[in-house]
Queue: 2 jobs
Job 1
Amino acid sequence: MNKAYQVTKDFESVVSDYVGSKYGVAVDSCSNALFLCMKYLNVEGSEITIPSRTYLSVPCNIIHAGAKVKFDSNHPNIHDKKLKGAYQLDPYPIWDAALSLKKDSYIPGQYMCLSFSGPNKHLKLGKGGMILTDDEKAYKWFKKARYSGRNEASHLTDCFDMIGWNCYMLPEIAARGLVMMVGMSDFNDDLELEYQDLSKYEIYK
């Protein structure tokens, strides 16, 4: 793989060290991070419970992954029409941590998905996300899955044995993330944002 992509590896290392996970896999969005986790765990045909107030890409990707959405209007992360902090895509060990980026916050044995997109995140990169894990097998799968099934080699010499997706984080975004991580506080509070109640929309049912 081109040496320019080393910066993405460096960014992954810095973020995973900060949150306390063994591995980090940078992708182009938290939405795709969640999707890859669901594809890895083969959620097709299952029912996944999430807060009724969350960003709309979450139920979209649950459906794209072949599962059904169950909304929880009384979810403990919902307060006065706002969603706060990280929540689990129950019953799977997948967490939407788009509103949480805290020192040593990684939960062992889980797949935690960060977001760097938009103006309201702790790390404001405009675009991007990351999967945090301590599972080496999953880590290797995510690395290939995010990059069209490619290994870290030229596509002219690589051997392909996996169908993947195109959701790799661009190195220029990773470089900006490296710079911004230098000033990252050890005492970040969970973010709290207002979202619509998505349970009222028929398209998610």
Job 2
Amino acid sequence: MHGCCTAKSMSHLKLNAAFEEYISNIEDFAQENIDVMPKEEIKPDNNAEKEAITTELIQIGTKAVEIMQLFVTNTIDFNAYQSMVKFNNQRRGELEIRLAITKSSEEPKEPIYTDYEIVSNLKDNWHTLDNAQRQQFIQKFINRITVYSKAPKGEKYGEVIINDLIFNEF
């Protein structure tokens, strides 16, 4: 809901009934007529970052050999050796995680919901939702609902009518 409601007060029950009537009249969708392909995504160009990480991982491997050589030749003591190996291994672990995250961001993603699933589930399951779940659904999937009250002359309350319902795009 992206705006303030300017309607005069109307019964929650009447509004709910109008909403249920409106969604029951939504044209049935045939799945083959709905575009279920994910929207084209712009994939990040992570090649430079992957290359930099890979280069640093190679350098860490080379450093590990140098550290071992320093220890074997008694240039550093055992405590210094352990400290250097520990630091080297921590950095390798950090880089491997970063590389995995970078690679996973390039994997194609399936759409969370298709138009067909949203409308089908809405029509089939609206009556099973409690008020909190209905509110969540409306906030997540519906951009705008245009409602008016058609009251007989001289009456304060009348029939609630939903004029338009616009779903969010995914």
